[in-house]
Amino acid sequence: MDDVDADAVRAADESGRARIWAEWVAELGQPEASRRWLAIFSATDAPRTG
């Protein structure tokens, strides 16, 4: 998971995505929050192969 914080991935899975999204938008602004959101969920929700 390049450029993805493992703690953030666990927090997303355990604590609720809506709360995390709202915190990131407030802290980072929507463009950066969107970039991080897509990185985390592409790493965690993508179908696994191999």
Helix/strand layout:
Layout: H1 6-15, H2 17-28, H3 30-45
Describe the structure in brief.
With 50 residues, the chain is mainly α. It is built from 3 helices and no strands.
Any key phrases for this structure?
single chain; 50 residues; mainly alpha; 3 helices; 76% helix; globular
Q: What is the total tally of β strands?
A: 0
What is the succession of H and E elements?
Answer: HHH
Give the N-terminus to C-terminus distance in angstroms. Answer: 16 Å
Radius of gyration: 11 Å
Q: List low-pLDDT spans.
A: none
How much of the sequence is in beta strands?
under 5%
Number of helices: 3
What does this entry look like structurally?
This protein is mainly α and 50 residues long. The chain has one domain. It is built from three helices and no strands. Helix 2 runs antiparallel to helix 3. The chain starts with 5 loop residues before the first helix and ends in a 5-residue tail after the last helix.
